[in-house]
């Protein structure tokens, strides 16, 4: 475990390689899910590709166009006040839904399934929705500070 004339490795290389692969693929799967569910899909895809690019050249090749597209979309999202307002409203709605989900409301009479399926997950689901909304608000602030009044050029 000792490199020639180098410091002793605390974590074996094979553990490091597996951790990179597992973390990268988890982020990729989460990003793909978040493209259709509430959450930062492109951000997770970029993060997953960045992690996997430490080990694989194919991930590095994919990282650049995905990152460019993510930055372009982030830039476009903060170039007008209606877009900013609708993004903030959507993020705040996500936080509100998370709070309602966690607190819970009575099962309506029209609900066709078992009462246990109404707002399933309770605070576990609610906290996830609140975290997604908070992350979205953070990304809006980041995008505004980085891209407002100086948009990202379109990727080549």
Feature tags:
single chain; 5 helices; mainly alpha; flat; 156 residues
Which helices and strands, and how do they pair?
Elements: H1 13-36, H2 41-52, H3 57-77, H4 81-103, H5 122-147
Helix pairs in contact: 1-2, 2-3, 3-5, 4-5
Briefly summarize what is shown.
By secondary structure, the chain is mostly helical. 68% of the residues lie in helices and 0% in strands.
Count of DSSP-assigned helices: 5
Sheet with the most strands?
A: none
Tally of extended strands? 0
Radius of gyration: 20 Å
Order of helices and strands: HHHHH
- Overall shape: flat
What percent of residues adopt helix (DSSP H or I)? 55-70%
What does the model show?
- The chain is mostly helical.
- The chain is built from 5 helices and no strands.
- The termini are far apart.
- The mean pLDDT is 86.
